[in-house]
Amino acid sequence: MTDKEAMKLAFEALVSINPEFVCNSAHHAKKDRHEFDEECPVNMRYRTAIAVLEEQLENHKKWVGLTDEDISAVDWKRNETLHDFARSIEAKLKDKNT
Ligand SMILES: [Zn+2]
What we know:
This protein has five helices and no strands. It is an all-alpha fold. Helix 1 (3-15) packs across helix 3 and helix 2 packs across helix 3. Zinc ion is lined by residues 23, 28, 34, 40, 42-43.
């Protein structure tokens, strides 16, 4: 399983739970205890986790290709095989997509 697949599973699991349920059923450590009319720190962390996962999944969707200039900048050296050149192109793509 890739990291993206794991993030997607976690995201889908988290969004399937009603936030009201999180406060009502989660253990509240001393630092997280709150009055009925106060914001729930457990729920806030829960919603932050969902937002971060959503953002990360969105960023993973964006693929950046190489421009003609990028490809031209990769030198095919004298004794380099086609395989080596392909690896150089792969490295350039990884640079732009990580
Ligand atoms: Zn709570």
